[in-house]
Amino acid sequence: MGNMSLEQVTENYYDVLKELGNIGAGNAMTALAQMLQCKVDMKVPQVRLLEFSAVGDMMGGEEQIMVGVFLGVEGDITGSMMFLVEEESARHLIRKITMGMLPEGSEFEEMGLSAMKEVGNIITGAYLNSLSTLTNLKIFPTPPALTVDMAGAILSVPAIQFGIFGDKILLIQSQFYDEVELDGYFVLIPDLESYAKILQALGLPVV
Amino acid sequence: MSEIIKVGMADLKTCKAPDGVTTLGLGSCVGVAIRDPMTKVGGLAHIMLPDSTAIKNGNMNVAKFADTGIAELVSQLERLGAQRSRMVAKIAGGATMFSFQGNSSLMGQVGQRNVEATKAKLQELKIPLLAEDTGKNYGRTVIFYPETGEFHIRAVGKDESVI
Fold it and tell me: Is B15 a catalytic residue?
């Protein structure tokens, strides 16, 4: 079962993985909406099998500046999880979360980024918790790391992980938004061998 | 009209002056630019991992690795009329995008290992490394012009530099 290829995983279990993304991101959204005290919507999650050359294009181009919170995933499954927010949207989110304490333009200084990291920590925690409950697998996030940089550079980190196994990356992506300014993504990137574990834990026959 | 050719992740492209080659948002990957100043033929490889021999199965993309990617770039340049003995290189990238607390795992060091493997391969092929902008913790967009050998580097919140 450890030999499942990315193509097999994607074709046979697309809907299951999409539903996982739906449940995880749904819980994360609830946590975010509570923190922001406003309504946050999300689009139907996508399960994507991408060539490395297409990775940069998935979120508005390689040079789109984004705030990325990155966590490792450990326990019964391994991989990584990212919370990515487009630059302007992140400024808005940071201002909102710090309740106007930060002067405009200073959102990406130490205090703002620290707040953003904590937001990322809480909502990715909510995402992974719901997956853990659903699958009965132990899933622990590592402490988060944050950077403000080009999307291509940020996404090279999980892409390199997949580069060890093959020439494509498989990820579960959920996009969230509100009426005005918020626009961002959750990306869950289990390592190849973890897909089999997740599917088995859900009682699915894994070839 | 000159053209700027785009190189994706785990990809490589060659060109002739006055055209140029670019790759956007290099993170821990390394951009290897090589040219022959006489024929003004040049190319750029966007490599992701240090060593193809460390990986066993089903990895057909030679551009992904420092060792095979640089060898392939050099042979493609030779087919365009460049000579190995005249080739020179510049490199950029190999950043550590996220600093993990108390974690010096494989992934934390992949940028540095990519840079080391790139230098080792260039040395093996006897291609002099003229300049580099590597390491640190930020992403880079690069453009290489085989006409002049200029390697332009852009990063978020920094002025464009030329090496």
Answer: no
Asked if the bond preceding B18 is cis, omega within 30° of 0, the reply is yes
Contact A148, A113 (CB under 8 A): yes
Which one is catalytic: B7, B15, B26, B29? B29
Model confidence pLDDT, tens digit, residues A150-188: 999 998 888 888 887 777 787 777 777 776 667 788 888
Whether the Cβ atoms of residue B62 and residue B70 lie closer than 8 Å to each other: no
Q: Answer whether residue B104 shows pLDDT above 70.
A: no
CA distance B125 to B70: 9
Asked if the Cβ–Cβ distance from B25 to A153 is below 8 Å, we say yes
- When pLDDT is averaged across residues A54-80 and rounded to a whole number, the result is 85
The answer to whether residue A207 sits within a structural domain is no
- Chain A CB contacts of B9 below 8 Å: 52-53, 55-56, 152, 156, 159
Class of domain B4-141: alpha beta
ipTM of the complex: 0.87
Number of domains in chain A: 1
Tokens of B148: 């002049």
Q: Please give the residue range of the domain that contains residue A86.
A: 6-201
Domain edges within chain B: 4-141
CATH of the domain at A167: 3.40.1550.10
Rounded to two decimals, the pTM is: 0.86
B48·A70 Cβ contact <8 A: no
Measured between CA atoms, the residue of chain A closest to residue B98 is: A145
User: The tokens 């003229």 sit on which residue?
Assistant: B130
